[in-house]
Design goal:
Largest sheet: 5 strands, mixed
Order of helices and strands: HHEEEEHHEHH
Radius of gyration: 25 Å
Strand content: 15-25%
Helix content: 25-40%
Shape: extended
CATH topology of one domain: Ribosomal Protein S5, domain 2
Number of helices: 6
């Protein structure tokens, strides 16, 4: 330990990972990276939100199974409309039988959770293949619905409902 700080720093390799000897970076291929991450042991993970609902989705290659908080789709969403809402991105892209979906749903009600799940699935499909973006964007399933319950104001009965007015 007789070397000085300057000598210790001189031995450090300052080359940046991903660059060749000339210092130039190789071109990054996002599609190849997404495909490799799906084929590897890392699933595609996304988040969707609507109203008070927050959904975290993992997309894996599979046979079209849905596991929502440990339950199948038909058990978690018995309403056929909510099941249809959840499956819309996969049906549009004709990929309903190609992926297994594992989701953790929290907060909100059934309609909010179904909308948040649809957004998360659409985002996962785009992360997997960027060519899926235009049809999903056109259908409006990549846009976060910012509507939420308006807060109650003091002096009013609800957010906007005023108490009955008496002239005299």
């Amino acid at each position: 330990m007789t070397e000085t700080v300057g000598e210790a720093v001189a031995d450090v390799d300052y080359s940046i990972d991903g660059s060749d000897e000339s210092g130039e970076f190789a071109e990054f291929d996002a599609d190849a990276f997404a495909q490799a991450s799906l084929q590897g042991d890392r699933p595609v993970q996304t988040v969707g939100r609507r109203k008070e609902a927050v959904v975290r989705v993992r997309l894996l290659p599979g046979s079209g199974q849905f596991t929502l908080n440990g339950k199948p789709l038909e058990t978690y969403f018995p309403n056929k409309l909510h099941q249809q809402i959840v499956k819309e991105p996969l049906v549009l892209l004709e990929k309903a039988e190609r992926f297994d979906i594992f989701a953790n749903l929290k907060g909100g009600g059934t309609a909010g959770q179904a909308g948040a799940l649809r957004l998360a699935i659409a985002r996962a499909l785009v992360e997997l293949d960027s060519e899926d973006r235009p049809p999903l964007k056109k259908a409006g399933w990549l846009t976060r619905d910012a509507r939420a319950v308006e807060r109650k104001k003091y002096g009013l009965k609800k957010a906007r409902k005023a108490p009955q007015y008496s002239k005299r």
